[in-house]
Amino acid sequence: MPNSHLAQPVNNHVTLGCYSIDDGSSKTWxxxxxxxxxxxxxxxxxxxxxxxxxxxxxxxNTGEHNHAQTFSILMKMPKKEIRNVIFAxxxxxxxxxxxxxxxxxxxxxVVSRMDTIEPTLESGGYLNDIIxxxxxxxxxxxxxRHKTSSKEHS
Length: 154
What we know:
The protein is mainly β and 154 residues long. It has strands at residues 13-22, 27-34, 40-42, 49-61, 68-76, 83-92, 99-111, 117-121, 126-138. The chain has one domain: Jelly Rolls, CATH 2.60.120. The chain starts with 12 loop residues before the first strand and ends in a 16-residue tail after the last strand.
């Protein structure tokens, strides 16, 4: 299998679309992989792998007219109410309160679980489209060091 311009096997590349389900009290985001033939399937990162996101397209409407809008992707910490911004992009909306952009990143960001990703708009409005592009890599096993206090070393 030939490698792409990103030095990755072509089969590792993914294009993901996204939609949300709003039950009134919370919003759940579902990502689906779009294949070269136009078909799609719900997407989860395989065990032992990670997704490197290199490009994002996003658009919105029903926002504030002629106002800056920031689209962010937050990463939720599992089993906690902590969210960290891992991506942010700001555009000036038009006179109808709509806008969007395409962003190509130099390094991108890495995700190991899709259920930790939470797209959001800072100034209200409705996200029309979110498209993530990137590739799948093997995720090395990371051993976390146990911190010891200085008293234990005395």
